[in-house]
Amino acid sequence: MVSDVTLLIAHPHTGAMHCRRWLGMSSTIQTVRRVLARPADHSEQGWECWGRVTSTEAEGIVAESELRYAGGATAAEIAEQAQLHPDHKFWWIIEHDY
User: Fold this and answer.
1) How many CB atoms lie within 10 A of CB 36?
2) pLDDT tens sequence across 36-71
3) Exposure class string for 59-93: b at 16+ Cβ within 10 A, else e
4) Which residues form the domain of 25?
5) Which of 5, 76, 91, 95 has the greatest count of CB atoms below 10 A from its CB?
């Protein structure tokens, strides 16, 4: 089954999307579930998402996914996003569509 895992960073008041970055495919979702250690906040047929993701959690996910996939987010990109859009001021969301 084809699936994509994406990091979204949005402004909580305006809804403006500041980042939409692909993290990986089906093996990345296993990492997401292990790192976050909680069920998705929302799920429907073919889609699930986790809110309240911290930049540290995102770094943990990317540390593994960047080893598997070329073209996905890197640890350096996540660190930069954490500086530009701190998780205590912005919504960090992991989205999985399949």
Assistant:
1) 19
2) 999 999 999 999 999 999 999 999 999 988 888 888
3) bbbbebbbeebeebbeeebbeebbeebebeebbbb
4) 4-97
5) 5
pLDDT at 1 over 70: no
How far is Cα 73 from Cα 62, in angstroms, rounded to an integer?
7
Give pLDDT tens digits for 16-45. Answer: 999 999 999 988 999 999 999 999 999 999
The DSSP call for residue 70 is T
Cβ 17 vs Cβ 81: under 8 Å:
no
Element (H, E) at 91: strand 91-97
Q: How many domains does the chain fold into? A: 1
